[in-house]
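Morning F.,

Quick status update on the modeling queue. The single chain you submitted on Monday has been processed. Sequence for confirmation:
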Amino acid sequence: MTIAELLKQLEDEKYCYKYCREQEGKALKAGDLQKAVLYSENANRSLREIKRIDFSIRTTKEADSLLRAIFAEEKRREELGKRWT
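Structure tokens below.
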């Protein structure tokens, strides 16, 4: 999954989290505890997903950075090798 796709997924989950928390509050005010619990559980699932996506974004960026460094080093070594031949 690309960073752009992960960021889109992250925004979707944030929206879902906020929506569920708002609906949880409304259900509590209306005295509908069963509905409030369901929205709370959904919000908690979204929060766990937000954490997972955030980790994926960070590790993908770290891997990308490492690959760029490796490719840059390989290119540098190739250039050095060409100078000695």
